[in-house]
Amino acid sequence: MDNSGYSRLKEPPITPPSRVHTAYPREKHQKVECAPQPSDPFQDPSLSRPSFAEQRFELPSTLLSPLKAPVPSDQFKNPFLNLLPNSPLNPRSNNFSPEEWISNLVAFMGQDPRRYPRRSAGFSFENLSVYSFRKPTDYQKNVANIVFEIGAFARWLVGSGKQKVQILKGFDGLIEHGEMLLLLGRPGSGVSSLLKTISGDTHGLFIEPDSDINYQGVSMTEMHQRFRGEAIYLAESDSHFTNLTVGETLLFAAKARAPPDFTFPGVTRQVYAEHMRDVMMATLGLSHVEKVLVGNDSVKGINRHKRKRVSIAEAALSGCTLQCWDNSTRGLDNSYTLDFCKMVRLSTTLGRTTACIALYQPPQSAYDLFDKVTVLYEGRQIYFGSCGEAKTFFIEMGFICPPDQTTADFLTSLTSPDERTIQPGFEFRVPRTPEEFVMVWKTSRHYARLMQELEAYENEYPFDGTHALDFAAARRSQQAKYLRTKSAYMLCPRQQVILCIVRGFQRLRSDMNSTIIGLATNILMALIIGITFYNLSGDTTSINSRSTLLFITILFNATTGSFEIIQLISQRPVIEKQARYAFVHPFAEAFSSIICSMPGKLCSTLLFNAILYFMTNLRRTSTAFFTFVAFSFVINMTLSMVFRTIGTCYRSLAQALCTTAIIVLIFMMYAGFVIPPMYMVSWFQWIAYINPVAYAYESLIINEFSGRIFPCANLVPTGPSYIGTSPHNRVCSVVGSIAGFEDVLGTIYLELRFGFQPNHLWRNMSILLAFMAFFMAAYLVTTGRLSTELNGEILLFQRGHKPQPRRQRHLEIYSGADIHKYGNGDPISKLHRQTSTFQWKDICLDIKTVDGTRRILDHVDGWVKPGTLTALMGPSGAGKTSLLDVLASRSSIGIVSGEAFVDGCIKDISFQRKVGYVQQQDFHLPTMTVREALQFSAIMRQSRKSTKKEKLAYVEEVIKLLEMDVYADAIVGVPGEGLNIEQRTKLTIGIELAAKPKLLLFLDEPTSSLDSSTSWEVVELLKKITAHGQAVLCTIHQPSTTLFQRFDRLLFLAPGGRPIYFGRIGENCETVKKYFEANGAHPCPPDGNVAGWIMQSIGCTPGSQSLVNWPEVWKNSHELVLVHRKLDHMRKALVARSSFFLTGTKKPPHRKEFATPFVVQVWQCFRRTNLHYWRTPSYIYSKIGLSLFYALFLGLSFFKDAESLQDLENQTFGVLMLL
């Protein structure tokens, strides 16, 4: 064998694919028939396979033509300069073409390879095994069982308490640069763990020592340290600064990875970054929201679909050579999924990058874009190889692929015993368990060929070889000039800080309300304190009030920065993500946040202290005033550094705030006011020397009293009899007074009352600046050291409630026919049967914007009858969720018009509790178990006519129905830790089912984050529910044809909330296809996706256009006339029926807003709240520990201290501090 390269392996050739897909750079893989005559999978048939090089598909001639032969240097334009307004290379043009842009860029760079060196990073992995550890105390903690954690932690430290958990075992693969790998597997199969391992994001994961990963000669350690940012992992969740616009977010990413100035002739980093931002926005359809805030679920901004595209654009702008996308198209239409895959395909083919992508329910057109696919089954690899051969491999093994099933769905279904079907005659020859699948895979010729390719790859790319050196040199050429050689970043520290400062001020500008509210709060507090100490007199009656006022002032100035901890912890996921992408070091963001906070702190300090200073008549000299402000500002900044350091040392907000409370108490107690220095106990006296507040308070007292004379207002003795008494026989009743003098010297008062020396004023300023510098350094060093990574989607149970592990069922349904899961005890039969019809007519929703009134929904009509499953579809932004919110009476914005009736009657106050609404977001109490969450919903929302026993029994039926019995006693947790996506979705559905909705059930995209098999289970569940009489209205993103056919009716919305169809779907979707074809749509392909065909026909997919105005066609159609006629007829009939039943009943219908009495509500909420706190031991023990610390600290501070008036005064202030 020729070891010079794996691309020259000699194997028997096969006929290359004949069909070429012209919509993307690589040819479409050859179509494989679904059920050819299989062969024995345990034999080694003589298969004719192509060599690795022969599987490399060529680019279309339109893209290759500029690269085939030498051409004049002016044929390819600099894509960053002098672009015509209508040029396809101009991202601001309507004619912009991403394909032409990237083709031109690659060709332009190819003219001078030395100036534009290109990096590439394919990789191989051999015998890759990944594991983690589990502790014996991995159960739900509560106040009682937390004590067991102490012993477990001790055993954990010595290693005896660790339980190894295998996550991945024995994986092999090879992905060349320029290729795309598709990862398929059900949730929990290890797809995310494999992507994290490849990208180096291995928090909590450990790689076996005999595992080998080779990034074309670059070791794994070097790849993820020195070259961090070249391999990135993009998780499902979106982490962005909510108060930045889309354009600002992407411009930051582009600048962070931009090459030095004039890398391209005449192009600065600013021009390069702005152009790349515009290209990504135009490619992903984000140009129209450039100036809209990113936002999140609680901050108004772009919707979650566009937010997902922002995440994709940000990762693409990183310029990395290896991209690991973990279900990054979650929640997006199939059209956007396909467009995303095409964009990655172009990037890998022309940019020589490598992409590993995990997708749920990818359409066939997206699957055909990939080069290779790997299938995971419970942490084991059962296939790795060409996408075109994957289906054949398993069909020859003896499985059947249904004609209407995509290849990706077929491959995923093989890992589900309930879904895979076996060809007759192979019932006892096909593998059943993951181990049997692995055995078949590793004895196949496909695996043997992979081993040969891996051996050749290792020979061609040895570690630290020529390619590794070229890779390092190419990366160095794109880094800043004065950056150290082994830095993972493109920018030098100075550039990073400047970039973060610009972003910091952009965030402040976008969130001016918070700044204004903060300033207003400071002004209000200054007025309140100023009124309390208004216009203090200049005599001795104000001495104690002045010292108290200065303490309150220093207390306020010092503690206002404690709220920064909340912001630090909330933004930590964004900072960590950008550090993984090698955008900026956390140090740069930390330092820039200090700089950006200083103007606000200075303004608030000036406003608060100026108002307070002059209202209370403090020392009226310019020197004293500016000294007062200077010390107030410095102590504010110093304590801000302290609080920031605390925030970087804790993962949770509760722990950080608890520590902050302790620090504040210590600083205030030993500042010199509550306990004067000469009265401090010896064992705590050292605190005053490390207390910055003490130095600030001493300086403010010196600034106010030093060198000042206070006339005595109360001489002793006093009274009418002592009016003529000589001053030498009287004395002032203030500390520091001298017999025979009617005035009190402020300097003497300072020395006798506090022990302060006037010459300490500016010495203290130096000490405070040193404190500030120290804690600033501590903050900058500790930032980014602590990760917020969660423990993963591992089920946690209460101690003693973990179910015994059951052997997973791997037996197949040999006949391929459905077997009823529940037999005669089907819980569906026990569900509440519905009889009410819900209808709506001319529903409109208008919201006010800066540019005027915008219509979100435009005259939408429809109905949902009992026993029907209605699909609500439309492109992203069409108003589907808004329509559900309006129909469910959950809309809180805009003006709603139109009519909505229940059985012909207007909705009453009880409507909301009579409907179930499964929203996209998960709103669950994380400390509750699945069963408790369902029981709470049933008890609170079911009719009071049902007994508690009946409600709890109904919950058990819902658990059986949703197949949640295995994890019914598991803790819900938070997204990313606890229940996985599938389990959380089922819980959300179950909570609404447990409420026994009397009218209908709304579901907002319940399958958007699920794999194909789970989506099928959810839709089948909905179908079973409707078969019992439940009315269901469900929004869904471009389902497969098989799923689409399970719905009865379709309501389709175009952009702007304009309806274009409402009616029956029909057998094999014939009804809906006839409507669109009759009105100008091209015929639907026999094997095409009907939902995708509709989206393409109306011009709502990327690159598609429609000459038909479908909303106008619907308005003028005969079908709409029939819909209005049917609505009027239904309303009359339903009103008549309702009137008949109302006449015959003794009691009116139950129309109360809540289903349960107020006492029951209070008790259930009280019980749930107590359970929540009981299962949050960190909160309870923090409170207990804080109380004990306060008591001990105050007790020791005033130990046997009750012998003088000063002691009593100290204790009084101590009680105040305790409160």
SSE map:
Elements: H1 61-68, H2 98-110, E1 123-134, H3 148-158, E2 163-175, E3 180-184, H4 191-199, E4 206-207, E5 212-214, H5 220-225, E6 231-234, H6 246-256, H7 269-283, H8 304-316, E7 322-326, H9 334-351, E8 354-358, H10 364-367, E9 372-377, E10 380-386, H11 387-397, H12 407-413, H13 434-442, H14 445-460, H15 466-477, H16 493-510, H17 512-532, H18 543-559, H19 564-570, H20 572-580, H21 586-615, H22 622-648, H23 653-669, H24 692-705, E11 709-711, E12 715-716, E13 731-732, E14 743-745, H25 746-753, H26 761-782, E15 838-849, E16 852-864, E17 869-873, H27 880-887, E18 895-902, E19 905-906, E20 916-918, H28 930-941, H29 948-961, E21 973-974, E22 977-978, H30 981-994, E23 1000-1004, H31 1012-1027, E24 1031-1035, H32 1041-1044, E25 1049-1054, E26 1058-1064, H33 1070-1078, H34 1090-1097, H35 1110-1115, H36 1118-1144, H37 1158-1174, H38 1177-1197, H39 1205-1218
Parallel strand pairs: 3-8, 3-9, 6-7, 7-8, 17-24, 17-25, 20-23, 23-24
Antiparallel strand pairs: 1-2, 1-4, 1-5, 9-10, 11-14, 12-13, 15-16, 15-18, 18-19, 21-22, 25-26
Main location: membrane
GO molecular function: ABC-type transporter activity; ATP binding; ATP hydrolysis activity
Region (Disordered): 1-48
